[in-house]
Amino acid sequence: MTLSNASKKQLRAIGHTLKPIVSIAQKGLTENIKIEIDRALRDHELIKIKLLAADREEKQALENAICTEFKAECVQSIGHITLLYRRSKKPDPRLSNVKKKPD
Q: Are 98 and 13 spatial neighbours (Cβ–Cβ below 8 Å)?
């Protein structure tokens, strides 16, 4: 799944107000974190993750591993925050950050 620049721009605008759902620190990508990332992507489609890695290369490797494992697309990565998107087969408009009606 490759997003167009226009789609990424729209998703970044939506993601701007989101808070990180998952934080990955010293223990790395544990089984519980994998379960939570999968659930969050399934329910919300667009999520922020906080990656606390030692250096850029480690952060990039972790980001790539997450995107590959969960078939997600990295929309944006700034500092320790990564914005991920994975289209849901049946998005719930009440939960999806992409399908929600603005307040």
A: no
